[in-house]
Amino acid sequence: MGIVDEKYFIALRNACKDRFRMIGYFIGEKLIAFSSTLEHQEKLEVHYIGLDYTYNKSHALYFNILFDGIEQAILSEKKSWSWEGLQGKRKLWLVAILFILMTISESETNLHVVL
Fold it and tell me: At 55, which helix (H) or strand (E)?
C-alpha cells in the first residue's frame, strides 16, 4: 500500500472535475479529518478518508464521515452508495444505514447500499 498525498487529490480533481469532492472536518482552523467522494453515473463512492484518531472517539469522526457520505448520496439522488471497509464494520454500518433509510419515506428514495 502506498502513501496518498495532496498531489494525488489534485490530480484526481483535475481529471474528474465536479465528480470529485473533498470535505474537511475542522476544530477552529485545525483540520482533524477529511473525506473524498467520486460520482460514477448513479453511484457515489466514498473514496478516501483520513482522520486524526485522537479526536475520533470524542467527535465520532469515523461515523460522522460515514453518515455524511450517505447523506450526500441521498441528496444527490444517487441510486447506490459504496464504502470499502473491513467485514466486521460492515454489520455495524448496515444497522446505521437501515436506521437512516427508515427515517426516509420509501417514496422519496430507492437508494441501494453496497458494502
Answer: helix 53-59
The mean pLDDT values, 10 residues at a time, for the chain of 115 residues are 79 90 93 90 83 92 83 76 55 58 52 48
Please provide residue 89's backbone torsions phi and psi, each rounded to the nearest 5 degrees: -75, -25
SS3 7: helix
Cell representation of residue 107: 417514496
For residue 69, how many other CB atoms are within 10 A of its CB? Answer: 22
Q: Is the pTM of this model over 0.85?
A: no
Cell matching residue 48: 478516501
Contact 78, 71 (CB under 8 A): no
Cell matching residue 108 = 422519496
